[in-house]
């Protein structure tokens, strides 16, 4: 297969696709689109959700292994557990942007499945380590091999779904992380009980079993995950045309060819991207509490099995809120309220945790903090996909930057939770409270700026491109002129461009 066939929107000319779609009546187009979206939902979401559950369980096995005796068995002390968490995300961050650059050139189905098999092998080998150094090296490579999956899936979704559809789909997909948090605790509790008296420690079995399951499932995903609308064989010609034109129309203009280096430059020069990244980074800082959730619950005084079981309900509540928040965000085409208000709820949970050591109150606070942070992540990613809508390579890089730089918080936040600071962890909670304030402020500033951009585009004429209106992250306001008639050949695309707006 040639390089061109692997790229998004390759194949026949978009003009041919436009002619196919333009031949349908509005009613026929609407009906076809509903069927198309349902088909993609069933083909794309279930398999990726299952894989992401396995991805998250593998990555977050260490906190569960910790309460099963990992630190004692490996003679770890001081900040060594925190270092293990940090190096995982050093590896994770290092590969996200390069990986999405690679993904614009290769088949997602094979690339993502190969990465899955690799992290399954690395995860299984975690059960064979015998000291801190071995575990740290192992978790670094786990981060490297897991990094491509989430940002790759976010990019893949953006090639299939429009802006109004993307937030909910990302929310459904990301809810898998919360399901894994709930299921991972139950699974770890089962392993701890089943292998309590085994010669091989139960935490080793936890890593081994999870790793084997991941590798086996990776072989299936290579043949199930679809690539792009232009290259997916199980789409009819009409469905292929619809899939491609939906994304072109949603972006406001036909896709253009641009080098990866130029796309990277466009991304880093766009201050809207960086405002979004600030919020994402602070969200990750607060969300890092999940790396210590079993330990925090263990401080309530419960046994190992009960501790692992009690970590599940907050995750289940987070799943429900994440689905509602992303669904309502898509329905209203608004992003900022669905980041700001949940962040305020998380702040309330943090204040409760700082103010009291009461077990019931602190456990209730988890039901505010987890949904209030994790419920925002995919609204943020959907917003980024809109802010950096085009060119396609810029969108890929922007989504990777949003997540990789956001994950930098997971390198330093583990050091906020030293064992000596428990059970109150006042420094950690104070930092988390400050992070929620920054989320609200940065989101508010971004909202004000995007409103200004939308007002500029209200005066956009047909012969001015979206880049000239500032969609590429630069200020081209001198090109903004009075709106003129959009009645000419290629009117579908022109009307889409005329109504294109940043979501706020």
UniProtKB/TrEMBL annotation:
Q: Which GO terms describe its molecular function?
A: transmembrane transporter activity
Give membrane topology per the record.
Answer: Multi-pass membrane protein
Query: Subcellular location, in the record's words?
Result: Membrane
SUPFAM superfamilies, alphabetically? Answer: MFS general substrate transporter
Protein name as annotated: Putative transporter
Q: Where is the Major facilitator superfamily (MFS) profile domain?
A: 44-455
Entry's PROSITE patterns? MFS
Per UniProt, what is one Pfam family of this protein? Answer: MFS_1
| GO cellular component terms, semicolon-separated | membrane
User: Primary place of residence?
Assistant: membrane
For this protein, the record's InterPro entries field holds:
MFS (IPR011701), MFS_dom (IPR020846), MFS_trans_sf (IPR036259)
Q: Does the keyword Membrane apply?
A: yes
User: Is Membrane among the key words of this record?
Assistant: yes
Q: Which UniProt keywords apply?
A: Membrane, Transmembrane, Transmembrane helix, Transport
Question: Disordered: where is this region?
Answer: 472-504
Regions that span the bilayer: 40-57, 77-97, 109-128, 140-160, 172-196, 202-225, 305-327, 339-357, 363-384, 396-417, 429-450
| Compositional bias of kind Basic and acidic residues | 472-488
Which superkingdom?
Eukaryota
């Amino acid at each position: 297969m040639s390089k061109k066939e692997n790229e998004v929107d390759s194949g026949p000319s978009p003009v041919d696709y436009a002619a196919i779609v333009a031949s349908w009546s509005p009613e026929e187009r609407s009906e076809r689109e509903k069927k198309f979206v349902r088909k993609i939902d069933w083909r794309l979401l279930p398999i990726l959700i299952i894989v992401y559950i396995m991805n998250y369980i593998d990555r977050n096995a260490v906190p569960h292994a910790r309460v099963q005796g990992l630190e004692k068995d490996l003679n770890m002390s001081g900040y060594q557990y925190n270092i293990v968490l940090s190096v995982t995300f050093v590896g994770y961050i290092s590969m996200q942007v390069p990986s999405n650059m690679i993904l614009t050139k290769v088949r997602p189905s094979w690339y993502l499945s190969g990465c899955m098999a690799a992290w399954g092998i690395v995860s299984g080998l975690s059960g064979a380590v015998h000291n801190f150094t071995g575990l740290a090296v192992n978790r670094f490579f786990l981060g490297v091999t897991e990094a491509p999956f989430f940002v790759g899936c976010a990019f893949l979704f953006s090639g299939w779904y429009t802006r109004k559809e993307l937030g909910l789909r990302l929310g459904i997909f990301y809810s898998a992380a919360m399901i894994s948090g709930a299921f991972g605790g139950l699974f770890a509790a089962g392993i701890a009980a089943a292998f309590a008296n085994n010669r091989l420690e139960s935490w080793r079995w936890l890593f081994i079993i999870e790793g084997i399951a991941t590798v086996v499932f990776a072989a299936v995903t290579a043949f199930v995950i679809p690539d792009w609308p232009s290259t997916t064989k199980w789409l009819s010609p009409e469905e292929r045309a619809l899939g491609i034109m939906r994304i072109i129309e949603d972006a406001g203009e036909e896709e253009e060819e641009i080098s990866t280096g130029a796309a990277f430059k466009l991304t880093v020069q766009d201050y809207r991207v960086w405002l979004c990244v600030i919020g994402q980074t602070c969200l990750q800082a607060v969300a890092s509490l999940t790396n210590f959730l079993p330990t925090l619950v263990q401080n309530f005084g419960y046994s190992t099995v009960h501790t692992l079981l009690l970590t599940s309900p907050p995750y289940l509540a987070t799943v429900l809120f994440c689905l509602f928040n992303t669904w309502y965000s898509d329905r209203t085409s608004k992003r900022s309220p669905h980041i700001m208000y949940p962040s305020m709820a998380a702040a309330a949970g943090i204040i409760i945790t700082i103010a009291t050591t009461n077990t019931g109150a602190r456990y209730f606070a988890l039901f505010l903090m987890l949904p209030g942070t994790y419920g925002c992540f995919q609204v943020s990613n959907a917003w980024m996909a809109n802010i950096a809508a085009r060119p396609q390579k810029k969108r890929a890089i922007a989504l990777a930057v949003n997540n990789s730089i956001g994950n930098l918080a997971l390198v330093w936040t583990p050091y906020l939770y030293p064992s000596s600071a428990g059970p109150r962890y006042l420094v950690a909670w104070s930092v988390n409270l400050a992070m929620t304030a920054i989320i609200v402020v940065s989101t508010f500033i971004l909202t004000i700026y995007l409103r200004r951009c939308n007002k500029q585009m209200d005066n956009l004429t047909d012969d001015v491109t979206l880049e000239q209106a500032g969609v590429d992250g630069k200020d081209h306001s001198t090109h903004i002129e009075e709106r003129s008639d959009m009645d000419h050949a290629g009117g579908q695309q022109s009307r889409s461009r005329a109504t294109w707006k940043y979501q706020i």
